[in-house]
Specification:
There is one protein chain. This protein is of the alpha/beta class. The protein has 2 domains: 266 residues, Aconitase, domain 3; 147 residues, Aconitase, domain 3 (2-Layer Sandwich), CATH 3.30.499. The longest helix is centred in the first third of the chain and has 16 residues. Helix content is 32%, strand content 20%. It has 15 helices and 19 strands. It binds 3-isopropylmalic acid and iron/sulfur cluster (SF4). Heterodimer of LeuC and LeuD. Keywords: 4Fe-4S, Amino-acid biosynthesis, Branched-chain amino acid biosynthesis, Iron, Iron-sulfur, Leucine biosynthesis, Lyase, Metal-binding. Pathway: Amino-acid biosynthesis; L-leucine biosynthesis; L-leucine from 3-methyl-2-oxobutanoate: step 2/4. Catalyzes the isomerization between 2-isopropylmalate and 3-isopropylmalate, via the formation of 2-isopropylmaleate.
Length: 428
Amino acid sequence: MGKTIAQKIFDSHRVDNPSGDINVIKLDAVFCHEITTPIAINDLKSRGKYRVFDKNKIKAVIDHVTPSKDSKTAEQAKIMREWARDLDLKDFFDVGQNGVCHALFPEKGYVRPGYTIIMGDSHTCTHGAFGAFAAGVGTTDLEVGILKGVCAFKSPETLKVELTGTRAKGVYAKDIILHVISQLGVNGATDHVIEFDGSVIADLSMEERMTLCNMAIEAGGTCGICPPDETTVDYLWPFIKDGYSSKDEALKDYSQWMSDSDAEYSKVLKLDISKLEPVTTFGFKPDQVKNVTDMKKAPVDQVYIGSCTNGRIEDLRAAAAVLKGRKLNSSVRGILAPATPKVYREAVKEGIIDIFMDAGFCVTNPTCGACLGMSNGVLAEGEVCASTTNRNFNGRMGKGGMVHLMSPASAAAAGIAGYITDPRAYLD
Ligand SMILES: CC(C)[C@H](C(=O)O)[C@@H](O)C(=O)O
Ligand code: SF4
């Protein structure tokens, strides 16, 4: 019987198999941020285990609330800083170099096809875009990972989402994944890896694949995975060129992380996206999805463009294409948080920051901030935000606030109109 990508990764990383269903796998990287890691650090310290399994394989960042906004967040940042210094971590990103973890770490070349990665963060699934197995874990698993470089997982059942058809103008990776989640439901992929496949995936950029995999968890998925291909190799080439004589050689090596044609899936969802239109969520669950044109011009108070879902340069370009030469409606506040310093710099260079600022946006430093309602754009009771983030739970961006998830182009269009509307009206 053939194997899926996740099965192949597990088979090559398994160090123990204590029961039929549980696998202890070796980790290629442990990612850390300042919300969940300090608890693990303090616990390890109190147990006399203030060490890491490999200082080169731990990648750490202060990203959720940075620069710190109050004493609590300052304390969390301090713990991370001291830990990174005491244990001589090679890759630690503090104020000035920091950005949203799931955008920053891929940009630094830390993710490779076939890798196993854990982090104390639910959107770790993003990194599966490279053909890796990457999953969010709780404090205990994180501690074991930091200390021993291993993690226990159930055998990965895989759900395949096969996407075919031609993407219409104004339809982005965000629309595709919201549509997929609406079909699967918020628990539709629980305890499953979602493997994305089909001609649509082959045509997506790495950034778009990250947007897709980022939201696998919103359907309950442990990880989203895309098969590695030329696009993956092109993206990684600056980081891997010393290890391969040519891109073809790299591709050949990475093709070991493709599913076999006779691999077994617990479920296959086939979707033709040709008729898909720009969509948005309308309730407090990410599977409540409607066409933007069916939103009856629902008014918004704030537009937020950023996060690990849609804060990358292609996202900013897509929003800028809508905003260029236009202004935010006087009833709307616009906030742009480029996901990383590199994205920010590139946006300055391309004149994108000017377009946003001319439209009336406030541009913040790279941080999660408003995405989880912690800083830089928290909503007040009754306020509504058109947001490029991934979660619309009740109160996510502020108590009593409502979040509509959508693509950067749709969010920009909502900002101009003052209500949820079709971004295609603003695209040439
Ligand atoms: C703070 C962190 C634990 C959390 C997560 O795991 O997802 C955050 O990133 C989020 O998006 O809500
Ligand atoms: S940007 Fe939002 S979803 Fe992503 S890691 Fe930060 S808080 Fe979580």
